[in-house]
Amino acid sequence: MRVFDLLIVGAGAAGLSLAHAAAGIVLPGVGTPQIALVEPPAGAPRPNERTWCFWEHGAGPWDEVLAARWDTLSVVSPTGARHGQSIGPQSYKMLRSRDFEDHVRGRMGPGVHEYAATVEAIDDGFDHATVHASRADGSPLSLTARRVFDSRPLTAPPAARTTLLQHFRGWFVHTGHDAFDPGSAVLMDLRTAQPRRGVSFGYVLPLSPREALVEYTEFTRRVLDDAGYEAALHHYTAEVLGLERFTVSASEQGVIPMTDGGFATRAGRRVFRMGAAGGATRPSTGYTFSGIQRQVASVVRSLERGRLPLPPIPHSRRHLAMDAVLLRALDSGRLDGAAFFARLFARNDMRDVLDFLDGRSGLGRELLVGATAPVVPMSVTMLECAFRSPRPMRSPP
Questions:
Q1: End-to-end CA distance of the chain
Q2: For residue 144, what are the CA distances in angstroms to 34, 133, 137, 201?
Q3: What count of Cα atoms within 13 Å lies in the side-chain half-sphere of residue 219?
Q4: What is the residue range of the signal peptide feature (predicted)?
Q5: Residue 12 covered by a domain
Q6: Is 107 contained in some domain?
């Protein structure tokens, strides 16, 4: 019976990132690892093409396949006041899933063995785990490995005090005249109609003077229907941005749970969870890609040193506690979300805010950033969070 060194379930950002990184290491006493990568067969439900955005200092490992990058960001308040700033030495980067996948698959090497099958069960064992799957024709497939990393989404968010949904739809728009500044991206445009609880905003990621990804996003409990997203995007592009004539070449849509629930990255003696299922998503922002990269780097270091490759939760307890207060304040309606975010970026250096949102800030700087938050609603919410017990999400999105 063949036993793989690693078996990765799922070929999204987490699965492919781990396969790409682990294929180039040397395992103590083993050498080059033999890796099985299992993903759904053609025709099975899978995520549509999407974009991932993140920011980092200087050059990064994915720079050669970026769709775009920006060194200047702006936030627009509900009144139209614009706060723009260079974020150097950081850059805000956009990566399209198709480009990422093509890049990774072309460089994984002979040690990665790909299987198209739907995983139905994982049997954990003392010295190995076995993954049971079925191929497109219904025939069974069983694969055994010393370590299994499962990157499939959870069927439901974990029990939490608060679970909001970051849900969005975006258009790739083309205009007949110059309408965008390709050197600057709009991170949050808060001139959208605001929900009673939560927050909504648009954002604009220019790809050229005549092309941009324009998205409408909400942090609320429930998603919109198709008509709701289309109406919001039509209003944002026409009434807020003033785009009179444009064509839509493609669209994207998604839902990201934003929860203060606890995630477990260990699912068994030989089975681990990664990616969004392993807590890589930052609860207060929905950004996941950078968290995945930190998880992958930690797992690879552990494998190289012969240690337990337990993926870490890539966000500190302090940051998660602050995120829990923000989510609850938005969901309770105590906090005016649009005013809060506008104030946050207007009164702080944007680089400090980005460091905080990426979990790279120190306590002293965080206290200065936190001092710009409204005291009463955040204090009341902090007390509520201390006494509120986690609960299952009442209904699916």
A1: 42
A2: 11, 11, 21, 46
A3: 28
A4: 1-21
A5: yes
A6: yes
Residue 396 φ then ψ, to 5°: -70, 160
What stretches of the chain show up as alpha helix (H) in DSSP?
A: 13-22, 97-105, 226-235, 289-304, 317-332, 337-346, 350-357, 363-370, 375-387
Residue 59 in contact with residue 88, Cβ under 8 Å? no
Return the residue matching tokens 């990157």. Answer: 151
Please report the pLDDT score of residue 278 as a whole number. 97
Q: Does residue 145 lie within any of the structural domains?
A: yes
Distance set, CA 116 to CA 8, 39, 105, 140 (Å)? 12, 5, 14, 11
Please name which of 177, 90, 136, 4 lies closest in space to residue 361, comparing C-alpha atoms.
90
What is the Cα 205 distance to its own chain's centre? 17
CATH code of the domain containing 37: 3.50.50.60
Residues 36/113, Cβ–Cβ less than 8 Å = yes
- Please report where in the chains the tokens 């939490």 appear, as a residue: 160
pTM: 0.94
Q: How many domains is the chain partitioned into structurally?
A: 1
Q: What angle do CA 106, 110, 113 make, to 5 degrees?
A: 90
Residue 260 pLDDT > 90: yes
| Bond preceding residue 78 cis, omega within 30 of 0 | no
Q: What is the pLDDT averaged over residues 177-189?
A: 96
Q: By three-state DSSP, how is residue 108 classified? A: coil
For residue 137, being part of any structural domain is answered with: yes
Supply the pLDDT for residue 359: 84
